[in-house]
């Protein structure tokens, strides 16, 4: 049994399936610009900021350059498309097992927090009815460096007043797993990231987390 005082959850792809909405919004833009974009490229976007995601997508547009102004416009367009889909979100979009896991952690007296690169995190948490559930929420509006930089998790630990060694991160992105490890935290991987050997724990479902706390 480990001595965790807090669990810090990533949002997109861990608490709610908005990772798929990110993909669909970027896909529309990449297709219009005739830039190759598939699930393999999409995996590299998980956990990284909007502008960094755009940078990765445009790096596949061989021989073409894009001005800073165009990049800003494309990022804004993506966010508009993404926000349209977010409007339909409701508590039914919370991923399976999440509520049971949050309940189980609270029953054990473990603090729960969100550590997300997304600037839309407050809006999403509101739509799915989880805004009030977390002791601390750190998102893309609070940080200057996105995952794999550990800033988001370090800031969450500071706000939680929890030593990093007593924080457990839950992530679906390799960039997020790396960020958690760099923050000197243990990391439980779900979804995509659970295929990687990097994570401390590799979960088949989010409820398995309760076995390690
Ligand atoms: C992360 C997603 O949670 O947020 C990334 O995994 C996304 O794919 C990033 O790029 C930034 O999101 P937003 O909502 O600020 O554009
Ligand atoms: Mg994620």
State the main characteristics.
binds magnesium ion; binds 6-O-phosphono-beta-D-glucopyranose; 6 strands; 213 residues
Descriptive report:
The protein has 213 residues and is α/β, with parallel strands linked by helices. It has helices spanning 18-32, 39-45, 50-58, 68-86, 98-107, 121-127, 151-160, 174-182; strands spanning 6-9, 111-115, 136-138, 167-171, 186-189, 201-202. It has two domains: 6-17 and 92-211, 3-Layer(aba) Sandwich (Rossmann fold); 19-86, Orthogonal Bundle (DNA polymerase, domain 1), CATH 1.10.150. It contains eight helices and six strands. The model has no long low-confidence stretch (mean pLDDT 96). The chain binds 6-O-phosphono-beta-D-glucopyranose and magnesium ion (MG).
Number of domains: 2
How many DSSP E strands?
Answer: 6
**Biggest beta-sheet profile:** 6 strands, parallel
H and E order? EHHHHHEHEHEHEE
User: What separation lies between the terminal Cα atoms?
Assistant: 6 Å
Give the secondary structure arrangement, pairings included.
Layout: E1 6-9, H1 18-32, H2 39-45, H3 50-58, H4 68-86, H5 98-107, E2 111-115, H6 121-127, E3 136-138, H7 151-160, E4 167-171, H8 174-182, E5 186-189, E6 201-202
Parallel strand pairs: 1-2, 1-4, 2-3, 4-5, 5-6
Helix pairs in contact: 1-4, 2-3, 3-4
This protein binds 6-O-phosphono-beta-D-glucopyranose and magnesium ion.
The site of 6-O-phosphono-beta-D-glucopyranose has 19 residues, from helix 1 and helix 3.
